[in-house]
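Final report, Chapter 2: Outcomes

The project's central promise was a pipeline that accepts a single protein chain and returns its three-dimensional structure in a standardized token representation, suitable for archiving and comparison. That pipeline is now operational. To close this chapter, we reproduce one record exactly as it appears in the project archive, with the input sequence first and the structure output second.
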Amino acid sequence: MRLRKVTLNNFRCFERLEVDLHPQLTVIVGENAWGKTAILDGIACALSPVLTYLSSANQRLSGRGIQDTDFRIVQLPAWGGNQRWGKADVTQLEAETTEGLKWDVWRAATQGKKPEHIEGQTALKHYLQTVTMGYGELEPKPTPVIAFYGASRGYIEVPQRVRRTKVDYDYPATALLNALEAFTNFRELLAWFDRAESTELRKNKGLPVSEFVTSPILDAVREAILELLRGEYVNPHFNGVHKFVVQRKSDGAELFVDQLSQGYQSMLALTMDFARRLGIANPFIENVRNGEGIMLIDEVDIHLHPTWQQRVLDDLMKAFPNTQIIVTTHSPQVLSTVSREHIRKLQPEGGIIKAEIPDFSPLAHESGAALARVMDTHREPRLPIQENIRRFEQLMRAGQEDSEEAQTLRELIEAMGYQFLDSDLRKWALLGRLKKRGED
């Protein structure tokens, strides 16, 4: 399952927003309060019926319904000369897959109100019934995998003791347990890993290392970690005192998760979580990382050094090649790694926010180009010192480097902590000499 388009009607800040999604990667960019996170939340709400129709007595699943705070706030008719505000009558979310499957989710704020057009969920329900009916067959239909990772994912709570889980991970729909919660449940993730690793060890008990048969799902997790963490941390496992650790490749040291940086913690949790969801949902696939899924990530750049930001999307696509990835970002470094057709730029037009493909493709350009031409942000911060720098540059280009004004300005600028680039000073001085020579 891949989404082709989502439409948000009266959802949060949007009166109506259509977002065409790329089948592999969509990067949403825009200023604060323009609705980047709202789009991901809207997609998560729109996908909630998938969990509803895959829920059963074997595994109860719950999604994200439309909340009171999701209704767009609209201006109501004045009363007694006073301006009034309230909820829109109806909030509606519409989804369409690349296969043409359509459905919607809606909720009325006022009794008796409903959308002008209701798609319903019948087609989606029938499709997912064919999925669940195939459980236990030799060639079942793939279970769709969905997961949402919010901006708070970097704050992982590592339990002191991992308790045995009662969840039946042999049932494919279990892959969607808590899938649309923005905060990764690391406790549940570790409980799954503990059980999977124990099963792997029991099956190989007494066998020589050369005959050791690893778990395909655990292999998927290990390979995904290797891909996303670039081999810096490997071999996730429970140690001799039953504490979850990863091995630092450079020296072999075993580290607890809470000893890792926020960036490594967040990427480790995300990688492990999504890889195991793919494996639980469709264990019959030869390489479970090749299973199809939809991954939503808010602020994909959070806690990551700019160097990592420049490779995170490529790493995600390599780790999960058949997953549709939809992310938001504030990072020009992230944008410099994708072409324009993957970007959806939020911008107001006639009082309405639209999501459009930008005119400029930032792929392989310096991040400053993405900053200026996609994010509409000046490459240099607009500080009072800039006026003095520009004036000093003008004096040097005019051949007045040794003038009293130029010397005073340079002392003032450097005293404020600005460091001139040697290349700039040489260029301006050369231009100044050429100007003087031309005047002579």
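Archive annotation: Residues 3-373 form a domain with the Rossmann fold fold (CATH 3.40.50.300).
This record, like all others produced under the grant, will remain available to the consortium after the project formally closes.
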